[in-house]
Amino acid sequence: MFRSLRFRLPALFLVGILLAGVVATLIAIRFFQSYTTGRAVDELRSESVGIAQLYARQAGVQEVPVEKLAKAIGGDRIFFIPIVPGAELFTGRLPQLPRTAIPRTVLRRGQTRTVHFTWQGTRYLAVARPVLLGDQIAGAMVVAKPESQLRSRLITLVERLALAFGGGVLVAGLLGVYLSRRITRPLHALSEAADAVAAGNYAVSLPHAGAGDEIAHLAERFEDMAARLAESEELSRHFLMSVSHELRTPLTAIRGHVSALREGVLEDSDARDLSLGVISEEALRLERLVGDVLDLAKLDAKRFTVLHEEVDMEQLTERAYVAFGEEARRRSIDYLRVVDAHPVIVTDGDRVLQIISNLLSNAFRWTPEGGTIELALAADNGAVTVSVADSGPGITAEERERIFRPFWSRDGSGTGLGLAIARELASALGGRIDLQSEPGRGSRFAVVLPSESPTVD
After folding, report:
1. Are strands 432-437 and 136-146 parallel, antiparallel or unpaired?
2. Cys-Cys with 219: which of 28, 206, 321, 443 at CB 3.0–4.6 Å?
3. Model's pTM, two decimal places?
4. Contact 314, 339 (CB under 8 A)
């Protein structure tokens, strides 16, 4: 419990409040002591001036009544220290202090001083002011205030500060507990969600309380991560199923024809030639599948080497165009080739041919019989563009990014590697693949290449 964030957050919050409160209280007490002492000294100085002047005026004429002096100072104690013999007669019933109660400089030089002394067991704060009779110092008038009065004010202040401090700590504690729970509740939910994801359950949902803060942002990113992990696992599972199917089909065909040849079932030479042709085609199909997987792995690992050679793009597009001519004839597809430029660029010709072939293969896969496919070559502003347009079903905005992800297929068939490899290859050659599509109106894929491709290790 004591190691949990739910406990440590309010505990640290309260410790901070306590330290700040103690420091503030000490500073307040110090300032209050300085203020009250200074104010008391100012009052005593003001009173001592009036009393000394009153004594000096009336001394030798009449006795200065104690009541009159007490009224002048509002109840503070008045003491007199005589110096000249007979001076004490003028003070009436004022208590007299020994000369040692105040510094000698007050008596010798006529200075007004703030002093502390003890009389009859009481500690006093006082102001001593010399009394002049003519040009002679008759004594010193001492106006004093018990220090217990100053301490009583300080005790009252401390009591009020303690009351306010206790209330502040209580409020701060409740606020700390509330904030701690508000912070730790979504973190606890995140922890449980992380445990669920680690166990393979990616369908997690997190509360988005306090939307817009850092924890809500973290929860959103966590949900995105879980969704991507789920999608990645689904794609991997789909890839395994697709690859298994793609491998099993040609392997089954090869094994069947090989068995027929070994057992002598095919006695006719034409039948044997046909069977050997099927074996050769299925072997090429396996080779292409394995090559696609290896190419994708190399591209992901950044271990893909690009050759640099002069490539006649018109001849390259002609090779790609011819490769699909028979399929276009068989499916009655209006297959067009448009050449608007005759560029020769420095790039990897085999990889460019692979990109164009993948784009054409995708177009033929989605174009219905009797549709239209156009292969176009153009050059502009130092870039070469080879585009493949089809009259297929088109691509929605939600699918435009997904179709380039490995192992993802719109209809669940195939390996989903063609477009992914095409985009990665285009990037490796320093180019890109642009897509223009509208549902129901076909799609147009365009590979844009620079005249000179950068070196990729």
Report:
1. unpaired
2. 206
3. 0.47
4. yes
